[in-house]
Design brief:
The chain is built from 3 helices and no strands. The protein is mainly α. The protein starts with 18 loop residues before the first helix and ends in a 16-residue tail after the last helix. It comes from Lentinus brumalis.
């Protein structure tokens, strides 16, 4: 029996994530959004505590802090989405460029092997042609040499 956990898939074939898994993935993609959302919540809770104590000056201060935190959260969401889109596009471009380089190298290797084989065949043919031409044009010497009267060597 297999001990691997089964992964549940949705209708599109994508794995179904748990709450914790999705939070972790989103936090890695854009860590500013959960931090700023948490700070917004903290400022709202502090403002609610100031409201119960009827401290209007401090309440207004914390409500302004909440508005600033909400604005920063929205900026982080938009900026993070843009950044993530840019990184995704850049990764796709890099992957396609890497794939193209691999294909180019494979084609180059194939052309190089073909050229080396053709060169080897050409050298064999040249050597064979040279050997037969040398045998045909070189006279066989027999008998005495005109130089010292000895046989040719």
């Amino acid at each position: 029996m297999s001990t691997e956990p089964q992964v549940l898939l949705d209708a599109n074939g994508n794995p179904i994530e748990s709450w914790g898994g999705k939070f972790e993935r989103k936090f890695k993609e854009n860590p500013f959004v959960p931090v700023l959302a948490g700070l917004t919540t903290v400022s709202l809770v502090i403002a609610a505590a100031k409201l119960r104590r009827r401290d209007s000056v401090s309440l207004n201060h914390w409500l302004r802090v909440r508005v600033v935190m909400q604005g920063l959260t929205v900026v982080a969401v938009v900026g993070g989405s843009w950044w993530y889109g840019q990184m995704k596009h850049q990764k796709e471009a890099t992957a396609s460029a890497d794939q193209e380089r691999v294909l180019e190298r494979a084609a180059f290797s194939a052309r190089l092997r073909a050229a080396e084989e053709a060169d080897r065949q050409e050298k064999l043919e040249t050597a064979a042609t040279t050997a037969t031409a040398t045998e045909a044009t070189t006279p066989k010497r027999t008998g005495k040499s005109w130089w010292w009267g000895k046989g040719s060597s």
